[in-house]
Amino acid sequence: MSDNGTAYDVAKVRADFPLIENLAKGAKPLVYLDSAASTQKPRIVVEALSDFYLKDYANIHRGVHFLSQKATDAYEKARETARRFVNAREAAECIFVRNATEGVNLVASSYAKSRLKPGANIVLTTMEHHANIVPWQMALEGTGAELRVVPIDSRGVLDVEAFGKLVDENTVIAAFSYVSNVLGTVNPVKKLTAIAHDKGAKVLVDAAQAAPHRKIDVADIGCDFLVLSGHKIYGPTGIGLLYAKREILEKMPPYQGGGDMILTVSFEKTTYKGIPDRFEAGTPHIAGAVGMAAAMDYMERIGLANIEAHEAALLSRCREKLAPIPGLKEIGTAPGKAAVFSFTLEGVHPHDIGTFLDADNIAIRAGHHCAEPLMKFLKIPGTARASFGMYNTAEEVDKLATALEKIVKFFA
Ligand code: 7TS
Question: Based on the number of CB atoms within 10 Å of its own CB, is 180 exposed (0-12), middle (13-18) or buried (19 or more)?
Fold first, then answer.
């Protein structure tokens, strides 16, 4: 049921996505099951971008002229929308970045690097995407500080007790995904944050795979930092969000230098603006911010709880239909997992699964999903992954099952 009491109407939702609608009606109807890589865009987001470029566009924060003022207002309104979307206390705690990856890099470089000394540590988990591993390794390099990794079990459930032991008084930051892009595991982020805070460590939540599926509430989680990508929440590419608490941001040095982030510049001394401008050097992706805000508005209108419920139903159907397929193994069986379904087929390489499904017009992703350490732990080269969005249907799940049955027969 939707927020206003009517049933979730997936046909109506699909009608909002021209690419999904057009391809589904074509001679080779496409089944798009790769939303964890990137979601398709509703018309309203594309129109927000084109309207902005066609009607309101100018550079921001610099012009006294009317159009620049209008563009600045649109950009700052988008920041307020982002604030509401993640439930931050104030818009200044929301920094526009290129994507989740840039958000992590900003924190690793501006917050963590200077605090990493011999004896200090950073805590990650086995299930992290490379975006939440490599920036920390780069920050750690040459500091003498250590990287600690929290184990998971064979279902893909994080070992919370081990987390509590690995995080200690010398932990600079504990960084973990809210939802795993491979396993679909939903981590208990509020609990983990409380444990880390008890030891005096700061927390970064990688919400890149959570934001498409559930309400993000930084006030409730209590985390210090949170990152997400616009293109995974039905918004444009090239724009993302870093949320950080004001009191922490205010003590962080700029990440990049340049125009728009300074108060005064002389060759002797340069002073910086306050937050959030200090972290947005140069001309930002103004239209991207406007487009991402349109996507956030759209998701809220459909209802985050409705999206979550619809996708949970798709996941149950997927499990039910795929479980009887001989040789098929679901990778990631954590209770309450999100609508990300990784699997292997005995005797068939994940890339071959992807190619065969593509021939049947089903788009999934195959490979290590930028989580090589997780693949090493699972002792597999990769998985095939079907991931669901608000526009997917039960019939599409059935088509996936039928196509997989064909593959199994082919290799039998
Ligand atoms: N964190 C997680 C958990 C992710 O799944 C991804 C991208 C990122 C961070 C990085 O996002 P970006 O927008 O900065 O690139 N994950 C995937 C995926 O699973 N398939 O393609 C991209």
Answer: buried
* Rg of the Cα atoms in the chain: 22
Beta bridge partners of 179: 186
What's the gap in Å between 285 CA and the centre of ligand 1? Answer: 19
Helix, strand, coil distribution of the chain in percent, nearest 5: 45, 15, 40
Cα(129) to ligand 1 centroid in Å equals: 7
Q: What is the distance in A from the centroid of ligand 1 to the CA of 6? A: 33
Reading the chain (412 residues) residue by residue, the pLDDT tens digits are: 444 445 799 999 999 999 998 887 877 789 999 999 999 999 999 999 999 999 999 999 877 899 999 999 999 999 999 999 999 999 999 999 999 999 999 999 999 999 999 999 999 999 999 999 999 999 999 999 999 999 999 999 999 999 999 999 999 999 999 999 999 999 999 999 999 999 999 999 999 999 999 999 999 999 999 999 999 999 999 999 999 999 999 999 999 999 989 999 999 999 999 999 999 999 999 999 999 999 999 999 999 999 999 999 999 999 999 999 999 999 999 999 999 999 999 999 999 999 999 999 999 999 999 999 999 999 999 999 999 999 999 999 999 999 999 999 998 8
Atom 15 of ligand 1, nearest CA residue: 101
Cα-Cα-Cα-Cα dihedral sign, residues 96, 99, 103, 105: negative
* Alpha carbon of residue 126 to chain centroid: 17
Kindly state if the Cβ of 387 falls inside 6 Å of ligand 1: no
Question: Domain locations in the chain?
Answer: 10-41+303-411, 47-300
The domain defined by 47-300 carries CATH number 3.40.640.10: yes
The atom of ligand 1 lying closest to the CA of 179 is 3
Told to judge if 223 belongs to the known catalytic residues of this protein, a careful annotator would answer: no
β-strand 240-244 against 225-229: which pairing, if any?
A: antiparallel
36 lines ligand 1 (CB under 6 A): yes
Atom of ligand 1 nearest to the CA of 365: 20
**Active-site option among 94, 223, 318, 370:** 370
CATH topology classification for 10-41+303-411: Aspartate Aminotransferase, domain 1 (3.90.1150)
Mutating to test ligand 1, I would choose from 104, 129, 206 the residue with most ligand atoms within 8 A of its C-beta, which is 129
- The span from the CA of 45 to the CA of 48, in Å, is 5
Q: Ligand 1: distance of its center to the CA of 125 in Å?
A: 15
**Residue whose CB lies within 8 A of the most ligand 1 atoms, among 126, 232, 292, for a mutation test:** 232
